[in-house]
Specification:
By secondary structure, this protein is of the alpha/beta class. It has eight helices and twelve strands. The strands form three sheets. A five-stranded mixed sheet has the order 3-2-1-4-5, with helices on both faces. A five-stranded mixed sheet has the order 10-9-8-11-12, with helices on both faces. Strands 6-7 form a two-stranded antiparallel ribbon. Helix 3 crosses helix 8, helix 4 packs across helix 6 and helix 5 packs across helix 6. The two termini are about 15 Å apart. It binds adenosine-5'-diphosphate (ADP), ligand PAZ and potassium ion (K).
């Protein structure tokens, strides 16, 4: 079996594939390395032979996780690293090592599936967009705060914005003007994200007309899914790129 990990700033997304990479045996999200280990131990008949991972966390935190996996399961994880080009895509950053590895793998995965120009939007702790031209040239992208960061900034830097997570979820069932603090904040932040996404779409149209595909991924993709009926929602897009970055043989 193969263990795949995507360590974002908020959550570790994990899944276990059958040895032939054909199917997903188990999958989940974990808050911490400890929670990940408990979830893995609970997978029936777990027999890990390989592991690959991508992390945007600190080098220390990533190394700690690699060490834990080696100790507990005897696997040495392949960690995706920065590259100038991969899977037909050329990294567009001035310094290719500075592009977030999650962005890199998501856009490599998207280009692999689109085989043409694509716009990749990842809604997690941060929201990122990346533009890849039909010839595989990465044009660059944008980073802005995601939903968790926007709401926490408001909660932390004001005196009277206070509400719990359950109320937040409820508030997003509509986007009409808020009639309570929680509705006003959650809907306001959600509209900011939609405005960002709309701008990305317009920019892609300026570059490529109608000749591109939009990919949505990340834990908060559902917040904007409705405004992009033609987008491909691919929750495991980073894992598609990860398999290209760390092939088994
Ligand atoms: N099972 C879950 N547990 C917690 N948050 C979740 C879950 N599923 C989706 N989310 C949402 O995903 C967001 C985090 O997205 P994610 O793409 O995992 O971020 P990151 O890659 O930065 O860790 C959270 O803001 C939350 O709204
Ligand atoms: C932009 C990010 C913080 C997004 O992280 P995420 O929301 O997926 O946890 C991450 O890709 C990152 O640390 N990037 C390095 C800076 C850059 O891409 O320019
Ligand atoms: K992200």
């Amino acid at each position: 079996m193969i263990l795949e990990l995507d360590c974002g700033n908020s959550l570790i997304k994990w899944r276990v594939l059958a040895q032939d990479e054909a199917g997903v045996v188990a999958a989940g999200v974990a808050d911490s390395a400890e929670q990940l280990l408990s979830a893995l131990v609970a997978v029936p008949a777990l027999a890990l032979r390989h592991s690959r991972m991508v992390s945007v966390r600190s080098d220390e935190e990533t190394a700690h996780l690699v060490a834990l996996l080696a100790e507990r399961f005897g696997v040495s994880a392949c960690s995706a690293c920065a590259e100038v080009s991969l899977g037909g895509v050329r990294n567009g950053y001035e310094d290719y090592r500075r592009l977030g590895l999650d962005r890199w793998l998501a856009l490599v995965g998207a280009y692999h599936q689109a085989r043409g120009a694509c716009l990749v939007i990842d809604l997690g702790t941060a929201v990122t967009s990346d533009f890849v031209a039909a010839d595989g040239g990465h044009l660059g992208g944008f980073i802005c705060p995601g939903m968790p960061l926007m709401r926490n900034q408001l909660r932390t830097h004001t005196r009277r914005i206070r509400y719990d997570d359950a109320a937040a979820e409820e508030a997003l069932h509509s986007l009409t003007p808020g009639r309570s603090t929680v509705e006003a904040v959650e809907r306001g932040c959600s509209l900011m994200l939609r405005g960002f996404v709309q701008t990305q779409l317009e920019m892609a149209q300026e570059y490529w007309g109608a000749d591109f595909q939009t990919f949505l991924t990340g834990g908060d993709a559902a917040l904007v899914e409705g405004m992009l009926p033609d987008a491909r929602v691919v929750p495991d897009l980073i894992f598609v790129g990860l398999a290209i970055a760390c092939p088994l043989s």
